[in-house]
Structure prediction request, 306 residues.
Amino acid sequence: MRSGRACGISLVTALVLAGCGSAPGDAADDDGQTFEPLPTPTSVTRTPTATPMPVGSYRTPDDKCPQEWTGLTVVTHLDEEVEYLQSIQACTTDGTKLWLRNDSEAVWVITSPMITKTPERTHGSLRGTSYRGALAQSPLSRDLPGRTVFAPDDQVVIFARPTSVSWKLDSEVNIAWLTHDIGADELESWGEGIADGALRRRNTAGSALATCTLSGFQMGRTAAEMKMPTDPVDTQTLMTQALGIGVDSSQCWSATRSVSTPGSTKTMEAGLKARLVNPTALGKAHTAMTWWQRGVRFALIVNPKG
Prediction:
């Protein structure tokens, strides 16, 4: 008669099931056949995979938060990423919503739960508002549920637990920002009134600026895996392509050729072309592109610490 010993469950299931009939030391089964006692399964100790320890962190000072909000801490596993953490201020009140301010010169994309209410923008520069307005014209680039474009100087409240929200750098929106920035700088050189009207979409220059911004976004989609620019010439080449300079089929190029300075024959097209060979303007674009492209290469995704 078989022993009444209970059969345990193990990772080596086949061995255990084979030995459930006899207790260790039982030499015969009911039919008289003799079996060698099965060896006790060897215990395997699994070493947990080590989680990289954070090497840097940044806590938003309370005095950089809105009144009655508290600064949050974000951490990183790479020393090189600390400067990126410091470029975004993050605060909360009761742990159910998150306030963010973009102090960088780059555009970030915020990801949040789609079930939350629409984020509330509490501040944005005129240039940032113009830029986001241009992106809103395309279903590929506009804000979507759970996805918020976060331009320089933007402030936004996300109605979700801070730990469920993250933000990262993105090539598409940043090349779009650079094309918009170069265009806005050129229009400002024509006069404050012209630039203000363009940023508010009150003149033909504003329409051309929006067209070029979307052209930059499309360029970013095809150049998402581009190499980090090693010198200003790389940046010059990429931005020349983004603005479609010299390409008759480019919507940006066509739009800017029809916009001219009041009382002059100088066109927006000529101004943009000149900016890409101007050391100061090109250096500004190169510095910005190098910074955010480095962040993209880190695959940096920032998330507040719980």
In short: Residues 1 and 30 are 6 Å apart (CA to CA). The longest strand covers residues 88-92.
